[in-house]
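Tokens for chain A. Residues wanted.
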């Protein structure tokens, strides 16, 4: 399968947004609304498209003139050290092209974006039950560092 990784463009926003529901394509914990897993990212992308998020970079994977994968990266300070860092906000791949190396290519592009921004590290958040995503991240050198506990009440 041939594909191209390139910088996202404002004209790509409708196709980028169409991939966001893939972020909830796993056994989402029952106490979570799957739409909440991507609606905040939608807002970030819409702000980026307006020019209001200069710290955000978007990379897209294009196959046969269709966007089939996205990575959204934010430059920010590392949570504990305060050093220059980046955060992978979104990595989403169309189900029809899963398993063809597009996620891996976008992960490499994410690293390149972070380095270009002067980051010394990159972080991401992933649900513990999302084994498919966790396996990809671990293959690309990410270590599970912190655990976040959550308990719905009331």
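Reply:
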């Amino acid at each position: 399968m041939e594909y191209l990784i390139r910088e996202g463009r404002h004209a790509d926003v409708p196709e980028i947004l169409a991939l966001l529901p893939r972020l909830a394509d796993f056994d989402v914990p029952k106490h979570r609304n799957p739409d909440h897993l991507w609606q905040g990212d939608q807002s970030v992308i819409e702000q980026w498209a307006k020019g209001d998020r200069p710290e955000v970079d978007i990379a897209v994977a294009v196959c046969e003139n269709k966007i089939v994968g996205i990575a959204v990266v934010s430059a920010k300070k590392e949570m504990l050290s305060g050093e220059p860092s980046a955060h992978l906000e979104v990595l989403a791949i169309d189900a029809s092209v899963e398993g063809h190396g597009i996620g891996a290519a976008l992960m490499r592009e994410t690293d390149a974006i972070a380095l270009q921004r002067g980051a010394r590290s990159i972080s991401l958040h992933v649900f513990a039950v999302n084994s498919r995503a966790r396996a990809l991240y671990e293959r690309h050198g990410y270590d599970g560092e912190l655990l976040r506990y959550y308990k719905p009440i009331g």
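The mean pLDDT is 96. Residues 4-139 form a domain with the Aminopeptidase fold (CATH 3.40.630.30).
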